[in-house]
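Components:
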Amino acid sequence: MSGKNKVLKNPTIGAMSIDVAQEIGHIVSQLRDIRDASLEHRNRLGRPPKLPSRKVLATVVDALAAALFPNRLGPAGLTEEGIDYFVGHTLDTALRDLTDQVRRELKFAGEQADADIQARTLVRAFAAELPQIRSLLDSDVLAAYEGDPAARSIDEVLVCYPGITAVIHHRIAHVLHCLGVPLTARIIAEIAHSETGIDIHPGAEIGESFFIDHGTGVVIGETAVIGKHVRLYQAVTLGAKRFPKEESGTLVKGNLRHPIVEDDVVVYAGATILGRITIGRGSTIGGNVWLTHSIPPDSHIVQNPHS
Amino acid sequence: MSGKNKVLKNPTIGAMSIDVAQEIGHIVSQLRDIRDASLEHRNRLGRPPKLPSRKVLATVVDALAAALFPNRLGPAGLTEEGIDYFVGHTLDTALRDLTDQVRRELKFAGEQADADIQARTLVRAFAAELPQIRSLLDSDVLAAYEGDPAARSIDEVLVCYPGITAVIHHRIAHVLHCLGVPLTARIIAEIAHSETGIDIHPGAEIGESFFIDHGTGVVIGETAVIGKHVRLYQAVTLGAKRFPKEESGTLVKGNLRHPIVEDDVVVYAGATILGRITIGRGSTIGGNVWLTHSIPPDSHIVQNPHS
Amino acid sequence: MSGKNKVLKNPTIGAMSIDVAQEIGHIVSQLRDIRDASLEHRNRLGRPPKLPSRKVLATVVDALAAALFPNRLGPAGLTEEGIDYFVGHTLDTALRDLTDQVRRELKFAGEQADADIQARTLVRAFAAELPQIRSLLDSDVLAAYEGDPAARSIDEVLVCYPGITAVIHHRIAHVLHCLGVPLTARIIAEIAHSETGIDIHPGAEIGESFFIDHGTGVVIGETAVIGKHVRLYQAVTLGAKRFPKEESGTLVKGNLRHPIVEDDVVVYAGATILGRITIGRGSTIGGNVWLTHSIPPDSHIVQNPHS
Amino acid sequence: MSGKNKVLKNPTIGAMSIDVAQEIGHIVSQLRDIRDASLEHRNRLGRPPKLPSRKVLATVVDALAAALFPNRLGPAGLTEEGIDYFVGHTLDTALRDLTDQVRRELKFAGEQADADIQARTLVRAFAAELPQIRSLLDSDVLAAYEGDPAARSIDEVLVCYPGITAVIHHRIAHVLHCLGVPLTARIIAEIAHSETGIDIHPGAEIGESFFIDHGTGVVIGETAVIGKHVRLYQAVTLGAKRFPKEESGTLVKGNLRHPIVEDDVVVYAGATILGRITIGRGSTIGGNVWLTHSIPPDSHIVQNPHS
Amino acid sequence: MSGKNKVLKNPTIGAMSIDVAQEIGHIVSQLRDIRDASLEHRNRLGRPPKLPSRKVLATVVDALAAALFPNRLGPAGLTEEGIDYFVGHTLDTALRDLTDQVRRELKFAGEQADADIQARTLVRAFAAELPQIRSLLDSDVLAAYEGDPAARSIDEVLVCYPGITAVIHHRIAHVLHCLGVPLTARIIAEIAHSETGIDIHPGAEIGESFFIDHGTGVVIGETAVIGKHVRLYQAVTLGAKRFPKEESGTLVKGNLRHPIVEDDVVVYAGATILGRITIGRGSTIGGNVWLTHSIPPDSHIVQNPHS
Amino acid sequence: MSGKNKVLKNPTIGAMSIDVAQEIGHIVSQLRDIRDASLEHRNRLGRPPKLPSRKVLATVVDALAAALFPNRLGPAGLTEEGIDYFVGHTLDTALRDLTDQVRRELKFAGEQADADIQARTLVRAFAAELPQIRSLLDSDVLAAYEGDPAARSIDEVLVCYPGITAVIHHRIAHVLHCLGVPLTARIIAEIAHSETGIDIHPGAEIGESFFIDHGTGVVIGETAVIGKHVRLYQAVTLGAKRFPKEESGTLVKGNLRHPIVEDDVVVYAGATILGRITIGRGSTIGGNVWLTHSIPPDSHIVQNPHS
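Structure:
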């Protein structure tokens, strides 16, 4: 059933007589055969995919975050006189690197002809959103400070809170997603997912003053819509209820299948909210609640009071 | 409701005529305006916050861990004759770097006058706790070995288990928290949170022989108190039940709001324990249990037996 | 009860008169005493453990992944003519580094005599499995693409999905586990756990076309057996129900205590499946379900329908 | 006469009232003015020169040297089975990086149209010469071993001797010079000059079995021609006698103005040989000799015997 | 007479019975005794010298050179719009690092009280000279291009010529020397000496349009004064004739003891010019000439015509 | 006569039809053939030479220098209390790395059997010489300070002077040479040669208080013997007069062929002293002097007074 038995029965461990050099050559050649078959299967033989690099995008996002918050996320000795030069130089470098990655995605997606011009235009439009992103993040940081009794200062929140890290990545990724490079956006989202355990699909729309506390295990789906002043705790899922299939048996992709959460809603740890339902404004969803239907504004849902 | 619509309607993508150099200059200037407004709002104009560096603190904790366990977490070729020199040099360097970070926090907190002397005194007191920290960690490692049927050796536990990584960070962070640098402590806690998915507030008091298995999603709040020989599984929450607000509407900060878990308690995966309640010694809390009231010693709580 | 009180009462903070140099010397000497006591306790005085290095193994796995998928996980500018040289050189280097780590584990485990030859033989057997690992991973990537409505291309899946990262690590770790280096295997599993929040014990047997979506909080135990075309969501546990103790009071190690999940099963987010039970082929387990008994093929289990 | 006086009289040191931020801005602006004036002067305003990178070329030459002599100049642990993969992968990478640098030079030289194709063609031709370069270098290493009484082995010579380092760089640079990228070639020559104090213009033609002992201060001019089995010591100059000017007063560039040194000649330390003269085969030139006329074969020239 | 005999007779190699750990401890303790004796001898016991760092200064000079010539010595992808941000940020960082090093020298020189303010003032004065330094260097680059028949472009000269590297370092070091940090200046000069073999004391005053060809072995003394449009070749010495001693027998330090070279002088390779003599404007000094007396303008000195 | 013509006539540049992949494969295969022929020629087929690494040895020497002079050549923030730990840890690491390199040389030299024990014994003997090396270097630094009118402090000399860099390397290399690892010693000497332009064979015996000023171009041969308080200037050669050949025509290796320079001798710039002659104590050799016979004590030799 698994690869295990095959390994255990493998007689080569006891009697190892094949020459090692042949062996590496043999493995290289086997891997090439599998690779070529896979490329052929995907109609990519002769033009293997060159995808955006996660490593480069991680650097880009770190640089953008430092340009957005130079005093708190920038280098240690930054002085007042040097700060605009730092911001300008960091943006210039990061946007150039981002353009390279965007170009890769556009080429990979088949738009070869004017990938270069498109990439520049797209990144320019992205750059123009940065002040708006900073303003939204300021509202998020304030929401975290006000929403957590353990928070001692606004600055602590920016430096420490994984929820803020996740939202910085999301607000950047969401703009890129909307501008037409969903793979680049997704890689940025997964960088945050890996760092924080918070998994927000870049397609999700999230309003100002958003706060996720603790955060590990939070999942927010592609078509979720979240209003202003919403607060989530760890392990909350805003997911899809079911995955309709097409007649061919393949999943229908892209339909609206995740919840709408209106302004001023709080969702406590472990709650699971599934499907294209609406959580009315001002509602509170208790810990571990399992919810698959819409609720009106100002509802208070709690788990069965059996404990 | 979100930033998306704004982007999609942004007409600049089609007609991009502004000179790029002007654009970067424009963005730099917009970001400065937002930054200055934010600094003014926080009464920090002219003295922007210089916070402890997460990157430096990560290095400090790695160095301290290597000094505490040089054979297993130190460099590869360490010899018996060189081990004390390694420990001494590593401590000397790590404590100096820690002093820099502590000084930053003290200055940030407004204690400018004798921040330097205070930082040295504080780190000296911290250093004096290191042997005690090592002894506690030895008890934790042993508890992990004894508590997990899959553990094959004590050394494996130290190198592999995310629960141990989290506890190394916590025991260091907790001493710093008690000594008066809660931001430094919190950053260290979040480094562990990011690596392990285990979120322990540095304020939590945890006794010897503590073991968290698997660990992803565990949350332990600021005022939690945990006795000796306690064992937790993944996704356990020791949280607050509610967040009382002051008359002004802001959250009350710092009150005792998390559980007390007495000696020899086991809490299975996904259990949620909320509020300043007491779990009596020797109790067992079953998986996914939701618990908001105190229970006497030797209690055995399980989820509704509906499955 | 905790280290906190001790620290707070520590009188050294107020009156710090001891010379600092003496202090570091004192701490070094205290740490040595504790270390020697610990080594003696483990019968390792004079031969402290030299364990495999997590850092080196992380590099090895990254290199193996790049050799398995050079176009998508290899370096940026790789050309068609250079690809086999890249694969061959990367394998040669990674396997040599792996041999060093395997040798360490064998020596640590007490097999000093022919550790060198054993390590080479073992790594050769491991290398021979690489083409098979690649084929299994191709099936996993395809399963992810087909199982997630948000996936836009097979290549996106390989680069982005944490479930794929976890499975790459698992398939490598599992072969090493079966070949007799469980500690090396475990460290590799924990590297993935830290990156993805997905905790798969290297002993678990997993069939082809396996897909974990989102993934944070998933735990799969040592003796779990998973068939083909199985799909899991975040926070699913395939765990042990209880931990039998030997007469001496120590836990029984190594017995079959985790579930068997047959082909074509889907387990939704947060479900907890415990004990050596069997989930019959084609079954669906709903979100948050708590399951401790076997179910026949094609079962559909859902949580209490109270929502 | 120098910048000193200006600095000493600079009144700004005593009375420093200008705001620092303005100052950096002022310097940046002054530097821009000078830069623009300089670009305008060179007719490069709007297309500033992008030159080959010394840092990248240093990496390329190190990689080529490792590919030519993998056992002695390659990485430490190279095994017999992996050696061809190392050579192939190193060549593939180094030649790709070299192509980038060559493309820059071609573009800088004004050949914009098909710079990319030309660069590839040129580097392909360069690569085809590598086996010939290795053979020549083998003859040089042997000559060094046979020519120095202090040499204990052929391998020592390759690893230690600055003369060999210089010749490795030269033989690579010379082929590039002949193929039409003199700037790239010159940068490589200057890398060797900096490391060894030996300054060989890449235009110089040098036959097999060439040896320079000690080497510091050796200068070999652009149009020098050196036969087989020639040996030079430190501080030898093969230079130009005079620099004829054109009517406009500018130096005539590129004429044949350096010596021809025939086969089997030895030139001892500090000798200066100037102009398009011929040193006949088998001749010996003594230390510190100053020579500006041709000499027949088998001549033995020594300094005035005044000491 | 040397350390050799002692080593060869050392009986410890044959009979090595001392414990190694003791040995390292013994060496550490011996080195401490020698160190303390040396510090005591220099009246520095208790305040060991903290000198400027060569490594940091090398970085500072590289950054300043990139800020002065961003297109040719800056990073690869620099765009027109980003260039001033690069220059400003690079200056800001480099000047801050330079301030740290200058502060160290001032403290080392005994000026403890206001070392910080002095360092800032001094570096500000230095920064104000940068545009002037760039202008001088432009004249030097042009002189190199016009003076070397092998030079193909002005840009090649800047990137390749060791003489230019040496002059960039010198012009920076000279301003620092004049401003009162001779040790910092000297370290910068030695960085160039190591890279190029050209040894220019930072005290030397050098006019515009200065060119050194090849350069290895050039030595220019502390009190040398060089006019405009001067050209030197390799191994030229502008040195002191004798070193007068004070009555106490120690050397007199700081007197004017090196040559004055007036405008438009050319000095060919290997010429040695010693003492406070004057080389009249427009003169030519032939190769290997040894000169210890002043000569009038337009002199042409050649070596004895014995060859 | 040179490789040039071959390249220029190479027809492949015009008509490039061969597939590139074949080409790299072809070059790899050609290089293998040449390599195998070369190994066969040196009787090393099947056991290619693994030589000491220049890069590692450079690190070792830097570490030893920092351990010898921790305040001036060690890391920036070193504190009094940490200094012995730094020295001990740095020595422990550097000596371990040195042992690896020594082992390589012993194995390369054919002593396979007990290379490991020999390497440890040898490095232990080397380590025991370190205090003596430090004392000699202290005398050298003092000699430099007293011998150069431009030197302002003893500390400046240690940090700046290339002559001191060269002597640090030499005193380390000489002990290793005497202990039986001449290749390791030679590589260390060449590291200094590359940095300083000063070429001292590790076999040369040099007494205390040795000073080389400026230094570029100095060459000191293998069998030279230099007394106490000797001072050399740039471009001085202490070389061999002739190279006697054996009957077979190969050079005689290892005979005494370089000068003996007695105590208190000064040799000015550019002087050339050749052969096994003796320069009597207290003598002065003028600049550019060419000397091939012994001279009695207190001689003063100057160049022909033609200038």
